[in-house]
Amino acid sequence: MRYSFILLILICFGCQPKHDVPVTIELNNNWQFKKTTDSVWHSATVLGNVFSDLLDHDLIEDPFIGNNEEKVQWVSEADWEYKTIFSIEEETLEKEKIELNFEGLDTYASVYLNDSLILKANNAFREWKVDVKQFLNEQNELRILFENTSKFEEVEKEKLPYELPEGNRIFTRKAQFQYGWDWGPKLNTSGIWRPIKMVAWNDFRIRNIEVIQNVLNDSIARLESHMDYEGFDQENLFADYYLNGDLIGTHDLEMTKNFGLFFNFEIKNPRLWWPHNLGEPYLYNIKVIVKDDKKILDSISVKKGLRTIELITEKDSIGESFYFKVNDVPVYAKGANYIPQHSFQNKVKDDDYEKLLNDVVDANMNMLRVWGGGIYENDVFYDLCDEKGILVWQDFMFACAMYPGDDNFLENVQQEASDNVKRLRNHASIALWCGNNENSEGWHRWGWQANRSEAEKEEIWNNYLKVFDSILPNTVSQLTDTDYWESSPKYGRGNPKYKTEGDAHDWWIWHDGYPFEHLDENVPRFMSEFGFQSFPSYETIRYINQSDSIEINSDSFKNHQKHSRGFQIIEEYMQRDFPVPENPEDYVYMSQLLQAYGITKGIEAQRRAKPYNMGTLYWQLNDCWPAISWSSIDFLGNWKALHYKAKRSFENVLISSTIEKHILRTFAANDTLSNVPLNLEFKIIDFEGNIIWNDTVTDILNSNESKLIFALNLNDLDFDRSSAVLVISKDEKKWLHYFSKPKDLKLKEGEILKKITKTDDGFNIELSSKTLQKDVFLYTKTNGHFSDNFFDLLPNQPKTIEFSTQENESVNFNIKCINNLIR
Fold first, then answer.
1. Phi and psi dihedrals of 572, rounded to 5?
2. Residue 765: inside a domain, yes or no?
C-alpha cells in the first residue's frame, strides 16, 4: 500500500504541466464594417482602414488614380463602425488575468466588449491595454466606433482664444501627412491599423525587455537585462538565457521596484555592429526563459547589436559640430528622408520593406531619417535597418506646426513617447530621437508670430517647450541612452548660424529659386534636408492616367502635383541648366536629370567639405502615392535618375571636382576605415575620345578623410570647354566632370549600338558609341531593374548593363539620351 501511494505521487507529479506560459490570440478574423448611419455590414480586413475596405467592395474609386481623391473626401468626414465575433476556449477563460492589447487604433475610438464600453482611445500612436476578464464569455462581440477627427478638433480649437498654425490636425495624435502635404494627398484614415491581441495568463507575464550595454570593449561586453513584468511577487524565480541559440547560463532573478526583473551577463570577445559599408552589422540573438521551481512561466527574445552611438555637438573655432560617432569612429551619414510608403499603411507588406531597404543599401546609404509627419514605423522596418546596417534618425511625430499645451494633450504625448521609445530602444539602428520637424524654424521664421500679443506668443512658445524641451527629452533620457535633438533644423535658413551649428534644411533651392551652384558655396555642418522635385517613371504616369500615353497636362494628372508652384519651378530650373523638350516623354526624362543634377551637386559639395560637414540626407527617399515629388524612388518602386546618381555620389571613395575662378580642384573623400592608395589617371578628352590633356596623380587617402588632391589652372589650356569632359580613372572606375552646363554642351548625335544577351536572371545589354552619349536612359515596359541607368557612355568604351527580370520572353529596350534633345 505504501509503495502504491508513492507511485501515485510520482505519477501525479509527472503529469503536472511543464509550463504555464501566457496565451496570445490575435483578433484579426471575421471583422465587418459599416458607416454608422447605414444598416448593411460588409466584410472588413484587419489590419486595415476604412478606405481599403471600401475599395475592396468597389464602394469608392481608387483615390490614387486621376482626380478621384476629391471624390472620396466624404469617407474621412463620416463615422465608421467595426465589429467581430470571437470565441474563447474554457481553459483560456479560466486564466487569472485576461487583457486586450490594442496596438494601434486610428484614432478616436470607442471600444465595446459585449456592449460594455471598455476603452475610449484618442491616439493612433499609442498602445492601449484593458483588463477584460470580467466582460468575457465563451462567445463575444467586440465592436469599435471610429468617429471622424474634425468634431474633436473643433472642440479643442474652441478652447483656445487664438489659432495655432497649421490647421486643426495639431489637435489629433495621428499621422499628420494624412491631412495633405505638398507631396501627398488628403486621405485621413480610420480603422484598426495595428494588431488587437488577447493575452491570458496566470501567475506571470513578461511585458517587454531592455538589454542595457554597460561596458563594451574588444575583450568583453557587460550587459544588463531588465524585464517589465506582470504578476505576483514571488521568490525562487530564475532565468535561463541563450545567446545565438546556446544556453549561456542560469540566473536567479532579482526583483526591484524600478527595474522589474533583471540580471547581468557578459559576452567575451564581442562582435560589433557597424553601419553599412563600414563593417558587418552583427546582431546577437538573446533569449530569456523565466521559470519557477516547476515550470516555464514565459520567455522573450531580442536581437541586440553591440555598438556605441553618440551625437557629437562640440564647440569649435567655426561654431559647433554635428556628427555621429559609432564605436568611437566618426561616421559620415549618407542617406535620405523617409516618409510612409503608402497612404494606407496596411498596404505596406514585409516584402515592400525588404525591397525599399535593399534599394537603400544598393545606393550606398547608411542613414534614413524617419520624418516627423508620418508614423513610428512597424517593427519590421527597424529589424531590417538593424540587419542591413542602416542608422535611423527617428523623429517624434510632430511636423511643421505649433501644438497645444493643455494637460490632457501633454499626458497623451507623454504616454505616446513612452510607448514608442520602449518599443524601439533595443534596436541597434536607432541613432537619434528628434523632437520635431521644423516647428522651431516655423515659429521663428515663417511669420507665425505676426499679429500676436506678447502674452500669446509667450504661452505658445512655453507650450512648445513643455513638449520638446521637457516631456520628450526626459522620456528619452529615462528610458534609453540614445541622444535627443530638440528640433530639425537647429536654425532656419534665415539665421546665418545654419551653416556653422547643428543640422540644416536648405530650401533656398526649390522654394526660393536659388541656383544649384548655391549648394557648392553654402555647406552646413550636417544637411538633414534639401531637395528638388521630378516627375515619376513612365509606368507611374500611366498608372495615374490609366492610359498608355504619357500625358502630363491633364487636370487629373495635375492633381498629383501637390506643390502650388511645382510645375513652374521645375520649368524655371530646367531652362537654366538643361534643354527644355516639348515632347512630354522627353520632358519627364529631363526633369529626372534636373533633379539628380542639383541634388548630387549638393551631396558632393558636402562630402568634399568633410569633416566640417559630416552628413547629407536629401529629401526624400520614397512616395506614399503616385506623384510628382522630391522622391528618388517613385511610388511603384522605380528608381529615378537621382537614385542611380546618388548611388555613385555616396560611394565610400568619391573623386569629385569643382571649378573656382578657372581653377579645377579635385577632391578625394574616403569614408572607409582603411587607407586607400590612389593611382589616378586624369584626362581631358573631346566627345570623340581624342585626348586634349592628361596627367597622373599618386597619393594615399587616409581613412575617414577628404582632401584636395589636384589643382589645375584651366586658363593654361586651350580647348573648347563645351566640347570636352574630364575623365578621372582608377582601374575600371571612372569619375566625370563637365566644364559647361548640360544645355550648353556641344553633344553630337550618333548611334548607340546595343548587344543583348539572355542570362539566368534577365538580360545583359552591352552598349557602345563612337561619340560620348550623355545621360543614357534605358527603359522598357517589362517589369525589372537596371543595374545602372542615366549614365554617360564614353566614346569607344563599351558598357554592359544588367537587367534583372522574372520575364522569360524577349524584351524591347528603348534608349534616350541628351544628345538627341540638344537643339
1. -65, -45
2. yes
Between 6-20, 298-312, 324-338, 435-449, the lowest mean confidence (pLDDT) is in 6-20
With 80 as the cut, is the pLDDT of residue 16 above it? no
At 492, is the pLDDT very low, low, confident or very high (cuts 50, 70, 90)?
Answer: confident
Which has the closest alpha carbon to 542: 581, 582, 574, 588? 588
SS3 577: helix
How many angstroms separate the CA atoms of 191 and 49, rounded? 4
Confidence of residue 1 (pLDDT cuts 50, 70, 90): very low
pLDDT tens, 81-105? 999 999 999 999 999 999 999 999 9
Q: Which three cell numbers stand for residue 129?
A: 491595454
Taking the C-alpha atoms of residue 555 and residue 337, their distance in angstroms, rounded to an integer, is 29
- In this predicted structure, the answer to whether residue 768 has a pLDDT above a threshold of 80 is yes
C-alpha distance from residue 259 to each of 208, 232, 309, 476, 757 (Å): 11, 15, 23, 16, 63
Whether 333 and 616 have beta carbons less than 8 Å apart is answered as yes
Domain end point (choices 709, 731, 746):
746
C-alpha cell of residue 705: 578623410
Q: Which of 714, 746, 778 corresponds to the end of one domain?
A: 746
Are residues 251 and 263 in contact, defined by beta-carbon separation less than 8 angstroms?
Answer: yes
Share of the chain above pLDDT 70, in %: 97
Across residues 645-656, what is the average pLDDT? 98
The per-residue b/e assignment along 558-590, b for 16 or more CB within 10 angstroms, e otherwise, is ebbbbbeebbebbeebbeebbbebeebbbbbbb
Whose cell is 464602394? That residue is: 59
- Is 402 within a domain? no
pTM for the complete prediction?
0.96
For the chain, what is the radius of gyration of the CA atoms? 29
528 half-sphere exposure, CB direction, 13 A CA radius = 30
Beta strand ranges found along 232-327 (DSSP E) = 238-243, 246-252, 254-256, 260-268, 284-291, 296-304, 309-312, 323-326
Sheet bearing 204-216, strands edge to edge:
204-216, 220-231, 260-268, 254-256
Return the CATH number at 184: 2.60.120.260
Return the DSSP state at 208: E
Is the same domain home to 568 and 579? yes
Q: What is the DSSP string of 470-497?
A: IIHHHHHHHH-S-EEESSBSSS-TTSGG
DSSP 8-state class, residue 375: -
Query: Do residues 501 and 315 touch, judged by C-beta distance below 8 A?
Result: no
Distance, CA of 465 to CA of 435 (rounded, Å): 11
First and final C-alpha spacing in the chain:
109
> In angstroms, rounded to a whole number, what is the distance separating the alpha carbons of residues 822 and 687?
14
Identify whether the C-beta of residue 653 lies closer than 8 Å to the C-beta of residue 694: no
C-alpha grid cell for residue 627?
Answer: 506623384
> Which residues lie below 8 Å from residue 148, measured CB to CB, with a gap of 6+?
76, 77, 78, 79, 108, 188, 190
Nearest by Cα to 225 from 205, 204, 251: 251
Residues 634 and 695 occupy one common structural domain: no
Residue 317 maps to a domain: no
| pLDDT tens digits along 503-557 | 999 999 999 999 999 999 999 999 999 999 999 999 999 999 999 999 999 999 9
* Tally of structural domains, the chain: 5
Q: Are residues 614 and 643 in the same domain?
A: yes
Report which of 384, 118, 412, 166 is spatially closest to residue 276, judged by C-alpha positions. 384
Instruction: Specify the residue for cell string 474621412.
Output: 76
The answer to whether residues 67 and 170 belong to one domain is: yes
SS3 annotation, 33-94: EEECCCCCCEECCCCCCHHHHHHHCCCCCCCCCCCHHHHHHHHHHCCEEEEEEEECCHHHHC
Q: Is 529 within the bounds of a domain?
A: yes
29: domain range?
Answer: 23-201
Which residue type occupies 126?
R
